[in-house]
Design brief:
Blueprint lengths: L4 H23 L2 H18 L7 H22 L12 H22 L3 H12 L4 H8 L3 H21 L5
Helix pairs in contact: 1-2, 1-3, 2-3, 3-4, 5-6, 5-7, 6-7
GO molecular function, one term: DNA binding
Family: Belongs to the sigma-70 factor family. ECF subfamily.
Protein name: Putative RNA polymerase ECF-type sigma factor
Length: 166
């Protein structure tokens, strides 16, 4: 299959910065991050006709799998340095999964209306009570409750569309 440079360039243009930031936050090695992003884009490019749902979600899951595969390969080789950041493969997988979940949730939240996003952030991230959120957002408590209900419902739909398993 010949390389479709326009498609690869479009993937990089639309998702490259966020994907690199995600990989870099897990690897902390800029050269390794660049390699993983490049491998991710090429793998996804090969699968592009079969990708359903969110391209970004698919890219991030592919990058996650590549990072875990690389980590497992590194564990089979003799240790190159004395200190390692992560001693346990389960810990590495968990850290990458946590990062992936954070990125996917941020993407999903950005797809919500600002009113719904503000209520969810106030209640679930800032841990405000309904009354505190009402004061902070300058809306009645009943409106906070109503928006929270519909925001969670909309968020579930968005996560389903993105192919995120709950």
């Amino acid at each position: 299959m010949p390389l479709d440079e326009d498609l690869v360039a479009a993937i990089y243009r639309e998702h490259g910065t966020a994907l690199r930031r995600f990989v870099l936050s897990a690897s902390r090695d800029p050269h390794l991050a660049d390699d993983i992003v490049q491998e991710t884009v090429l793998r996804v490019w090969q699968q592009a006709p079969m990708v359903t749902g969110s391209m970004r979600s698919y890219l991030f899951r592919t990058a996650r799998n590549i990072m875990i595969d690389n980590y497992r390969k590194a564990q089979r080789r003799p240790q190159e340095t004395e200190d390692r950041d992560i001693a346990d493969p389960e810990e590495a997988t968990g850290r990458v999964d946590d990062l992936l979940n954070k990125v996917l949730m941020e993407e999903a939240l950005l797809r919500l209306s600002s009113e719904h996003r503000d209520v969810l952030v106030a209640l679930h991230y800032r841990r405000f009570t309904v009354g505190e959120a009402a004061v902070q957002l300058n809306i009645p408590s009943g409106t906070v409750k109503s928006r929270a209900f519909y925001a969670v419902k909309a968020l579930r739909t968005i996560l389903d569309e993105m192919g995120v398993e709950r």
